[in-house]
Amino acid sequence: MSRSSSSRANRRGELPPDPEPLPLPAVDSHTHLDIAVGGFDRLPDGDLVDAEIAAAVAVGIPRLVQVGVDVASSRWSAELAARHPHVLATVAVHPNEAGEGAADDDALAEIDRLAALPRVRAVGETGLDRFRTGPDGWAAQEASFRAHIRIAKDRGVALVIHDRDAHDEILRVLDDEGAPEHTVFHCFSGDAAFARACVERGHVLSFAGTLTFANAGHLREAAALTPLDQLLVETDAPFLTPVPYRGRPNSSRLVPHTVRALAEVTGVELGQLCTALTANAERVFGAWEDTPSSR
């Protein structure tokens, strides 16, 4: 989610209560702890972030992927992952930022430098956004997307994709450039046909709280046909809070709601799903070496 173009609406309201802990550990494959804790105007201090991570661990989410959206948040993400065993990082200039000209040579060089750090395990979120960025920014977005793909492949890390109203264009660019070995569609938003196209290419689909929304039947159909070893879950916190707390602030500790919804949609037993989600995340992002495997 772009820092400059995000709505503050998702930060309003009382914080939801903790969910029932999962029977086995799972993963939040995409969170913005900086925004969830500090808001849009500042990067938060360590104690508040540590408390947010501890709350996730307490409900069975000991592995988090902290996602950068610009140079500043990417640096912050890399620094957090370097000091915190429960966190790995991704780095990127978000497509909406790129559409405004932020993905210049200096920014891309810094993303490349950060992508080489040991606990930075993906480049992203990058991709295309035809909703918030108008046609004047599309060429810059695509150039940035292609540059991020090349960085991911050069550094041997995963690619995390932001795709909003750009399904066909995303696949066109990936097919043209050649996707990295591990490519994740963050907050998957397509229908069953698009899911099949992604799955056939070997991509991983990450489902957020939108899976639980009443009007998201197309997402449930997509999740139901996705092979178990190509599934991830995420929060995109502080956005996309799952039902029954839609509209209130999201956080990594609310992942269990989406995991349980995914178990119902796929028909996979909850403990088996947790184990698969953890295995998938470690295949894509590598091991959280010092993170306990159970609560």
Secondary-structure topology with pairs:
Elements: E1 27-31, H1 33-38, H2 46-58, E2 63-67, H3 71-83, E3 87-91, H4 95-99, H5 105-115, E4 120-129, H6 138-155, E5 158-164, H7 167-177, E6 183-185, H8 192-200, E7 204-207, H9 217-225, E8 231-233, H10 255-266, H11 270-285
Parallel strand pairs: 1-2, 2-3, 3-4, 4-5, 5-6, 6-7, 7-8
Helix pairs in contact: 3-5, 5-6, 8-9
What does this entry look like structurally?
This protein has 295 residues and is α/β, with parallel strands linked by helices. The protein has one domain: TIM Barrel. It has helices at 33-38, 46-58, 71-83, 95-99, 105-115, 138-155, 167-177, 192-200, 217-225, 255-266, 270-285, and strands spanning 27-31, 63-67, 87-91, 120-129, 158-164, 183-185, 204-207, 231-233. Helix 5 runs parallel beside helix 6 (138-155) and helix 8 runs parallel beside helix 9. The longest helix has 18 residues, at 138-155.
Q: Could you give a short description of this structure?
A:
The protein is an alpha/beta fold and 295 residues long. It contains eleven helices and eight strands.
